[in-house]
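Worked example 2:
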Amino acid sequence: MESKIIHVVGVQRTGQHAIISWLLGHFDKVAFKNHMSPSNREKWGFAPPFWYFEPKKRDEWEASEDFREGQDAWILGTELVGPPVQFNEHMATQMDAYGLSGTQEIIRIIRNPYNHYASVLNWRRNKLLVSPAKFKRAWMAMANAMIDKEQNPMELCYDIIFDKWFEEENYRKKITQLLNLKYSDRRLNTVMKIGVGKAWGSSFDGMTKKNKAQHMHVTERWKKMLDNEHFQQIYNDPEIELKANLIGMEKS
């Protein structure tokens, strides 16, 4: 099988790393590049280091300069804090930077807006999406891109609803079929140690459930924020509710 290049794209705190962690378990040798901040890009040069991984041998990552050699797949993460980037240009830039070649696929992730915004508000580090207006702009842009299939930037572009992925095994199996992978849930419960400083993993649970991801109440985060003034602006926004319904996400 030709090596895959999978671009995983989502708005910050959308559950992107949970899905990436799950995807990693479908390969025996895979390299992953997390989204890097501008300061980290400057520190490492244009191309930040890849993290090399053999899922059968370990759960921790190690930096490697040999990420181009012998991989079954490369997974490139892009974390958005605004409207979706121009994918064709963005992906071509990454491919040129890393000298990769293979079958390219894009996965776009969207999360129930109320659980999503609750996680944004609870995150201890980056606060770029705390403003209701900024969160709405980013979330609505992704929702509109998914609703309007003509905006799909490439033929191999797949959309994933995070909440449905988390709850339904049949939905996860459908995703692996689309990606032409042999289904595996071996990393479904693995929480990746991704973050800054001591803020790793889940915005609510951190790394306390690092091997019990399915025990986290990710679809009930909204309940923790009902008294939050910012949250109420999103929770009572009719435009967001309409878009969520069109995608198939009901308001709790």
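Residues 132-147 form the longest helix (16 residues). Residues 10 and 16 are 6 Å apart (CA to CA).
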